[in-house]
TrEMBL record, chains A, B:
It comes from Roseateles violae. Pathway: Carbohydrate degradation; glycolysis; D-glyceraldehyde 3-phosphate and glycerone phosphate from D-glucose: step 3/4. It catalyses: beta-D-fructose 6-phosphate + diphosphate = beta-D-fructose 1,6-bisphosphate + phosphate + H(+). PANTHER family: ATP-DEPENDENT 6-PHOSPHOFRUCTOKINASE 1. It holds the Pfam family PFK. NCBIfam families: PRK14072.1. The record marks D109 as: Important for catalytic activity and substrate specificity. The active site is at D138 (proton acceptor). The lineage of its organism: Bacteria, Pseudomonadati, Pseudomonadota, Betaproteobacteria, Burkholderiales. Its cofactor is Mg(2+). This is Pyrophosphate--fructose 6-phosphate 1-phosphotransferase.
Amino acid sequence: MTAEKILVAQGGGPTAVINQSLVGVVLEARRHASVQRVYGARHGVRGIVNEDFVDLTQETSHNLELVAQTPSSALGSTRDKPDAKYCHEIFKVLQAHGITHFFYIGGNDSSDTVRIVAEEAAAANYGLRCIHIPKTIDNDLVENDHTPGFPSAARFVAQAFAGANLDNAALPGVYLGVVMGRHAGFLTAASALGKKFADDGPHLIYLPERVFELERFLADVKTMHERHGRCVIAVSEGIHDAAGTPILSRLAGDLERDAHGNVQLSGTGALADLLCEEIKNKLGIKRVRGDTFGYLQRSFIGCVSDVDQREAREVGEKAVQFAFHGDRDGSVAIKRRGFYSVDYELLPLAAVAGKTRVMEDEFITPEGTDVTDAFRMYLRPLLGSGMPDAFRLRPNRVAKVLKR
Amino acid sequence: MTAEKILVAQGGGPTAVINQSLVGVVLEARRHASVQRVYGARHGVRGIVNEDFVDLTQETSHNLELVAQTPSSALGSTRDKPDAKYCHEIFKVLQAHGITHFFYIGGNDSSDTVRIVAEEAAAANYGLRCIHIPKTIDNDLVENDHTPGFPSAARFVAQAFAGANLDNAALPGVYLGVVMGRHAGFLTAASALGKKFADDGPHLIYLPERVFELERFLADVKTMHERHGRCVIAVSEGIHDAAGTPILSRLAGDLERDAHGNVQLSGTGALADLLCEEIKNKLGIKRVRGDTFGYLQRSFIGCVSDVDQREAREVGEKAVQFAFHGDRDGSVAIKRRGFYSVDYELLPLAAVAGKTRVMEDEFITPEGTDVTDAFRMYLRPLLGSGMPDAFRLRPNRVAKVLKR
């Protein structure tokens, strides 16, 4: 039995449960007598090329369990997207440290990194087992029922809209919330899970899977505002026109041309503000408020799905089991079994790497501004237990005395 | 024993616990055999002048308890700030419906409304007991240790910054979060309660109680960014220059003059975006992200302080007890006793009405960019039980092989 050395790293945007996967890897690897060291690379692939490692063999199980419950990437992350040369550097460092097993927790860019590193190792005839562990709040990995991190972010978005809807009902007007997700609308669509009563918001949902037309948007808002006396809207940051141009740059571009100047409008609040201005100016509605959920939706501490926690832990554990009991590299994928249970499979890296899933057509209504019951059935079990519920007073009207 | 008729209403911005106060009034009033009816006015004072009442005598205790746990104003709210004429209309309606007890849950504007209505009733020699019940996330009512609604909003802000700090540590750069509170900085200051380790953010806090100077702000950010390799900043929406001009209108104004146009920059995300632009342009820091917490901080469902819930319920109950066992109108106030317990007093309406509390000097450090331990001691018990906690991996560094 050879002395095995594990390296684990975290890449891309942090999630509420990415540390569950990290700890799943570490604790499962430490169970193996043949494992000499479990290293963690700080700040993802950048930490690998910089040889910035911590020894997780010397961390207590107790603290690891506490870290598992802490959101964001405990090892640090990176936005570096390695090219072939960068991957070669990664491989040289793994080789120098005698790493035998490489686990990388991340999205589809990260899986592509794992794929290239695995190819480097094979070409050099160096024995390295490479496993990609899925993670992304965007839920845009192909071949996965869903990805760890998405359910907790979806829960935040659903709770945020459930609350915003109550606020908007108390002080009527238009409320617009911009949600993360440049290409996939899953997280924006999760806003629909905040609805309970038929007239609850969000009354309109705009997804990057559909073309956004400003005139139709304004007409939709007008209709809903007249119907309900108020309107709650969920908008994906990735909405775009028929040519694929993001609406933000189109609207901001117009303003720049109007002003003949270099007004800087880039920034996270701009899309919400610009759409609110359109509603105010074109529809003459006075109370129009826009929020951009920004980093809260992926980092807020204390809003997590227990199902997401459990599955994020399991993909980490399974990654180690696939690595030690299997005979090939791959990407761990979540497959749904029944309503509701999951199982895990090891897919070839090429099946996942660099591909982007978007929302299936069956999840979006024909008008394109709402989700279907199929989507609600899909998402609800992921949100986990203890979802807060909203209650209303019943309308026992009192007869008027003065103005009958 | 005369047949008594209660009217209760909710005014101003909704909070996470304002329905606790409503239900506190209703259930306590319904215990009295002399109480014939408990009415609720929909959408605050506007619902009163419109005679838009619901009969809460016909609501089940069970549903009332569920509504109590639901955020936002279940009766609906209003931004109307009644003048003397409006208050006269209110009084006429109360008189027409034979209302004997008027309870209004709201901030300092609402307490002023109660004061004027009480004067109208006295002038007309009409027997009306008027009680103001405190509520505001701004925590800006004088003579109150704190106000119901503030602790839950403060908890949201603390949790948001605890998470944003972890996110910023994983992907370093500058993160800036804009928090509600035009005149009082309590809610922005609550961001400090998200800190655990000495180098955690927020590293800088900007409050409306201190003059904001852009040059000093940039110098502060530069210093912190150099010290920690990153910087998390909490900014109150109400920051202003020495002349009292809000920074948002100053920065937006500059841009308008530069552009010789009518660029619309009003909107909730603008201040964060503008400050981020300044940091990017003047300090040359690349990764700068700004969030505006917006309505989430007061409406998010599922983030509540149990201490706040309890106290909000009690101010409602106490209001009815003061009304039935006392002999004067007034405003219910929270007084702190020991560490930590509270008691309730009935203050004269004029002692609270229309006045604004800001943060005490002892709560702000001499540099003006952080809070003191006195503030932490003040706020911590209000946040309640079960605050999420963040944990870190310990730094067991691995020796470098290639780059020693």
